[in-house]
Amino acid sequence: MLEKNVDFAVYTKTTPNEEGFFGTYGGSFIPPQLVGEFEKISTAYHTICKSSKFINELRRIRKEFQGRPTPVCHCERLSNSISHCQIYLKREDLNHTGAHKLNHCMGEGLLAKYLGKKKVIAETGAGQHGVALATAAAYFGLECDIYMGEVDIAKQAPNVARMKLLGAKVIPVSHGLKTLKEAVDAAFEAYMGDFEDTIYCIGSVVGPHPFPVMVRDFQAVVGIEAKEQFMDMTGELPDAVVACVGGGSNAVGLMSAFLNDPVKLYGVEPLGKGTKLGEHAASMTYGSEGVMHGFNSIMLKDENGDPAPVHSIASGLDYPSVGPEHAYLHDLGRVQYMTATDDEAIEAFSTLSKLEGIIPALESAHAVAYAMKLAKEMGLGSILINLSGRGDKDLEYVIENYGDRLGLK
Asked: Of 23, 95, 245, 306, which shows the fewest CB atoms inside 10 Å?
C-alpha cells in the first residue's frame, strides 16, 4: 500500500480496524481461554476512552501527579557542535518516574479499576515500565507483579530497588537469554493462570489487540504537547522527528501528532555490536513477518523460524519484534527506520551529558546518536528528538563497562 492512499488526517481514528489490524499486522493470536477476557478489555477501553469522567481524571493525574506537560528544550551547544541544524528534545525524562512509560501505565491503572481488577502484571526490560506500573499500582491501591530477566536485573539494579520500594513483587526470569523476550513469556504465562482478578499491562505498542492501539492512544499526549510547544517556540514545525524504537511506544506517541504534516519521521533501532543475528535487535531492518506474543509484525527469526536471540546495550530495546503499527508505517513509507550501534549510543550518552547537562537513558541515546548524524547531513533545519527517559538507571552499567573510555574511572 502506498502512502498516498492513506488519509493521515483521520488515520488514528480509523487505524487499526475493529480486529486490531494495521494492514496485515497486529491482530490477536491468543489461547481460546483468553479471547473473552481480551474482548472485555477492548470493550472497556473503547467505552471509557470516550467518557468525559475518565478523560478528565486522566488529565488531572497527568497534571497533578505526573507533572505534565513535559517541556521541549533547545540544545544550542549540541547543535552548534555539529552543524547549523538545530536540535530540540521533548523531555520525557522529566515525566514522573523518569520516562514516558507512566503515560500509559496510569491509563492502564484506571482501566484496571474500571474492570474491578485487584492486580496488575507486566514484564520489564530497562525497568522503566516496571517502575511506572509499580507507581500506578501504588497510586490506585493494586497489587503488582513485575517479571524481569536476570540479566536486566543485574544491569538495572536501581530500578529493581525502586519497584520493590513502591510495593511491587519483582520476579526473576532465569530461562533463555534472561532478558526482555523471556520476561514477556513468563508474565504472559502467569497471567493465563489468574486473568479473572488480574490485568496484563503490556509495556509498549505490542501484544494482542487492543494493547497496541491503547498504548498508542495513551502515549499520544507526547506528540500533542510537543507539536504545540515546538510551534510556540519556533513558529513552525520541525523538519525531522526522531525517536528510538524497541517495541516502539515512545516513537508512536511522538510521531502520531506529525503523521499528516510535512515532517520527516525516523525510528532508530539498536544495531548493537554488528549485523549478524544475535548481535543486534534491529527487527525492522533485518526481520521478516511473523507472529509472537499474540500479534503479527516484523520479527527477527532464527533458522527454525522462532524468535532469534537479540542484543542491545539498552535493556528496553532488546526485543526481537516491533509494534505492528511501526511495521505498517514502514510499509506505507511514512516512517524511515534507521539504526545506531552500542558504541554510537555510548558516544551520544556522553556528548549530551557534557554539552547540555542532560544524562539520557541508553534507549534514548540511540535516537540522539542518529539525530547527531542526521544534523550533520542536513546542515540546516531543525530536529525534534523524543528523549524518552533519563539515564540514572544506566550509570552503574556504563561506569562498569565504559568507564575507562568515558573517563569515569
From this structure: 306
| 73 a catalytic residue | no
pTM over 0.90? The answer is yes
Active-site position among 96, 100, 293, 311? 100
Are 87 and 106 members of one domain?
A: no
Domain count, the chain: 2
**CA atoms of 110 and 33, how far apart (whole Å):** 24
- Structural domain range at position 118: 102-202
pLDDT digits (tens, 9 = 90+) for 82-118: 999 999 999 999 999 999 999 999 999 999 999 999 9
Residue keyed to cell 478528565: 56
C-alpha to C-alpha distance for 250 and 233, rounded to whole angstroms: 22
Looking at the structure, do residues 360 and 238 belong to the same domain, yes or no? Answer: yes
Task: Quick: pLDDT tens for 349-382.
Answer: 999 999 999 999 999 999 999 999 999 999 999 9
Residue 95 shares a structural domain with residue 161: no
Domain boundary among 137, 172, 202: 202
- How many other C-beta atoms lie within 10 A of the C-beta of residue 57? 15
Please check the confidence at residue 3 and state whether its pLDDT lies above 60. Answer: no
Residue 165 lies in a domain: yes
Pairing status of strand 264-272 against strand 335-341? parallel
- DSSP states of 11-54 as a string? HHHH-S-TT-EETTEE-----HHHHHHHHHHHHHHHHHTT-HHH
Q: Which of 159, 137, 106 is nearest to 316 (CA)?
A: 159
pLDDT per position as a tens digit, 140-152: 999 999 999 999 9
Q: Annotate 152-185 with b (16+ C-beta within 10 A) or e (fewer).
A: bbebbeebbebbeebebebbebeeebbbbbbbbb
Do the beta carbons of residue 280 and residue 328 sit within 8 Å? no
Is 75 considered catalytic here? yes
pLDDT of residue 181: 87
Catalytic residue among 75, 144, 201, 244: 75
Query: Is 253 in the same domain as 382?
Result: yes
Cβ–Cβ < 8 Å for 90, 222? yes
